[in-house]
Each structure stands twice: as structure tokens, then as C-alpha cells.
């Protein structure tokens, strides 16, 4: 699985929510802060979401669930799609933290063809009572979230030379990140990751740390324990198997590392996560 898919998959809690909302003329809606990501796509009329003025086909993403307003200051009703993805806020992935508070994506098919195609598909599904819509819409919400994050990373990169928005486009660092995500249980070292990416140990360590914001083995450990936590939440495999799949040579080493990172034992974490099931996505008003 690629890095962005992994990030979304491990942070997402429950199912996404979608609503088609009508905003009356000369009205304002206050949207509270949300533990996840919200996005809006205008289908008719004009609105302001936060500081962004949106027309039909325009989209905006609030990746951190920041509180904002939706305003229709025209004398014509407006309509928009509103989606919400609940995300793990206790342990957010640094890629999400690198996104700006607001990602604005104007209706520019030549720059974001996938995004615009996804918007049109979603509008079509909502416009008709089609068979299988309950299966198609959550999938389209996931697709739309990915395209909006891609747009955010692309726009946020600009002249920057560091950050996840740059790291994912850097062939060397992206290759090493894919290796960590695809094979977290491999016995990686800074030297072997550097060799896999095509750099010397020292050059790779400097480049990775500058772009990602963490040293290679620091991120490797963080990701391994994230993988372990997801296995504990979603499977019943023994702790020894969780340890093996997340790159630890023994259950003892894994138990110590997990408790240092999460503050509780792996077994207690599993029991606690089962007592409090993952929440379903909570949709916008």
C-alpha cells in the first residue's frame, strides 16, 4: 500500500458522512470544530466557507477540522456537498500535520482532473436514486478526500524544500518511505534504508531528517507502533504475532516499546479499544 493510503487508513475512524445542504439567501451557519477532516463542494450558487469564496465545482478541505462559518450573502439559495471523515486525533500522522489549515481547490479540470471527475460522479449519485448508492457514496468520499489532500500537498509544496509535501515527491525519500510502509517488519537500519534509496548512510539520514522532520529510525519506530496499535484494535492475533508484524524480534521488546510510546501495555490497549468501539463519522449540519 502506498504511503498516503496507509496514512488515511490508519487515521480514519468509522465511516465517512455526507450531506447535501441548502443555504438560504443572506444566511450564515457556524460550523464547530470537528475531530477529523471536513470538506465542501459547491453544486449551485455561491457561498463563503471561512475566508474562501466558492462557486459551483469549487471545493475546500479543512484537514484539521477547524471551526469556521458557511455564509451565503447573495439573494439566491446555494447548495453544497458536505463530507466529514473522523480521524484519530490522539496520534495524528505527521503528513496531516504538514497540511495547511485550509485547502482550497478551484474548479480547474486541467490541474485536478481526478478531483473534478470525482465531484461529478458524486453529484450524479446524489442526483438520482440509483441502485447501490449506499456502497458507492462512501467509496467516492474516500476518493474525494484523497484528491483534496493531493491538491493540498501540491499547492502547499510551492517553493518549499522540506516537509511531507516535498518528501512524497522526492524520488529518494519517497522510495524509502514506501519501503517502511510496505515492509515495516524488515530489519531496517539507516544504512540499509539509505542503500535501498540509493544514498550513503550519512547523506540519506540528513536528507530524510530535513524533509520528514524526524530521523529515519525515529519515524520507522513511530510507524511500526502505529501498525501495531491498528492490529491490536482490529484483530485478535496474539501479541507475539503483532510484535513480529510490526518489526520486533520478541514480544518482550515489543511490549516495552509499546508501553513507552502509549503509556499502557499492549494487552490493556487492546481491551480498552474493544470497550470503546471506533466512532462512526459525524456529518456536518
From TrEMBL:
Protein name: AraC family transcriptional regulator
Transmembrane segments: none
Pfam families: Cupin_6, HTH_18
HTH araC/xylS-type domain location: 174-272
SMART domains: HTH_ARAC
Record keywords: DNA-binding, Transcription, Transcription regulation
Amino acid at each position: 500500500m502506498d504511503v498516503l493510503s496507509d496514512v488515511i487508513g490508519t487515521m480514519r475512524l468509522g465511516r465517512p458522512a455526507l450531506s447535501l445542504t441548502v443555504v438560504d439567501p443572506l444566511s450564515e451557519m457556524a460550523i464547530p470544530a470537528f475531530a477529523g477532516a471536513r470538506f465542501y463542494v459547491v453544486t449551485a450558487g455561491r457561498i463563503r466557507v471561512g475566508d474562501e469564496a466558492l462557486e459551483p465545482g469549487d471545493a475546500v478541505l479543512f484537514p484539521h477540522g477547524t471551526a469556521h462559518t458557511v455564509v451565503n450573502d447573495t439573494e439566491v439559495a446555494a447548495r453544497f456537498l458536505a463530507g466529514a471523515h473522523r480521524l484519530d486525533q490522539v496520534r495524528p500522522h505527521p503528513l496531516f500535520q504538514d497540511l495547511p489549515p485550509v485547502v482550497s481547490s478551484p474548479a480547474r479540470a486541467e490541474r485536478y482532473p481526478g478531483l473534478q471527475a470525482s465531484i461529478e460522479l458524486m453529484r450524479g449519485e446524489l442526483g438520482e436514486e440509483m441502485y447501490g448508492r449506499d456502497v458507492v457514496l462512501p467509496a467516492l468520499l474516500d476518493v474525494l478526500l484523497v484528491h483534496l489532500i493531493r491538491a493540498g500537498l501540491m499547492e502547499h509544496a510551492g517553493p518549499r524544500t522540506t516537509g511531507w509535501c516535498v518528501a512524497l515527491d522526492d524520488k529518494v525519500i519517497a522510495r524509502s518511505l514506501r519501503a517502511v510502509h510496505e515492509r515495516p517488519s524488515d530489519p531496517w537500519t539507516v544504512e540499509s534504508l539509505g542503500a535501498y534509496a540509493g544514498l550513503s548512510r550519512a547523506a540519506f539520514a540528513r536528507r530524510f531528517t530535513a524533509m520528514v522532520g524526524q530521523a529515519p529510525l525515529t519515524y520507522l519506530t513511530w510507524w511500526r507502533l502505529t501498525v501495531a496499535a491498528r492490529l491490536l484494535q482490529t484483530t485478535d492475533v496474539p501479541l507475539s504475532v503483532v510484535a513480529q508484524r510490526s518489526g520486533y524480534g520478541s514480544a518482550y521488546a515489543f511490549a516495552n516499546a509499546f508501553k513507552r510510546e502509549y503509556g499502557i501495555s499492549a494487552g490493556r490497549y487492546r481491551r480498552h479499544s474493544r470497550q470503546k468501539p471506533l466512532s462512526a463519522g459525524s456529518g456536518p449540519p
